Predict the structure.
Amino acid sequence: MTPDSTRLPRHVAIIMDGNGRWAQRRGLPRVDGHRRGAKSVKDVVRAAREVGLRALTLYAFSSQNWDRPPDEVATLMQLLRDYVIDERAEIMGNGIRLIAIGEVDRLPDFVRDPLLDLVRDSAGNRAMTLCLALSYGGRESIVAAARALCELATKGVIQPSDLTEARFSEALQTGGLPQLDLLIRTSGEERLSNFLLWEAAYAELYFTDTFWPDFGREHLLEALASFDGRERRFGLTREQIRSAG
Ligand code: FPP
């Protein structure tokens, strides 16, 4: 089954949760859950491209994840490096533009260098944007945008009265992406965990008990079917929405 492209969310974001519990339930070290989670990333990116999503953002490493045990952080960094190296041909061959949001400068060179190489080389691709949130925090990103705008105001480049929602959205690292329509979180947890706080203002939320390492194409299609059945009102009444068609 492939969803009708006119009913697709333009931009889907995923909080890929449950890697640790997936592993622990099998008596495996947590890092094995992350390894299986990296396979789900590959499957879901391929499925997203096939169904025709315009943008997919994945919460791969939060600003707070630096405080996890050092061996877990090291494994995640290695998996990120492996991903951008191993998937380079797939990303380029399928016209995917890779971007990264978050404090990319905090990543070790062995991750940042191949990541930024692929970001640069894929910049002209148009089929889908894959956005990796790395060392990312929603509050941190809002503060960074506010700071950049304050600096422009201090230099006289903009006036406080120029600041609109649209201008602020553009100042965020997600500024070039379509509006976030659907936010998925796996593993049964139901919270945003500092992910895309501004961008999620009108997103539909979809929670599933499935752990991320078990999440694949069929689960993505289920989430898209759920989105298709939602009535989005953006603060209006049902009657207003229906009469507007
Ligand atoms: C949350 O599960 C997941 C993460 C903190 C990392 C996500 C990373 C990957 C899916 C693999 C690498 C990514 C790419 C893009 C190749 P958790 O460990 O918090 O799970 P738990 O809540 O069960 O402990």
Q: What stands out?
A: The two ends are 26 Å apart (CA to CA). Residues 11 and 55 are 5 Å apart (CA to CA). Residues 8-137+177-243 form a domain with the Undecaprenyl pyrophosphate synthetase fold (CATH 3.40.1180.10).
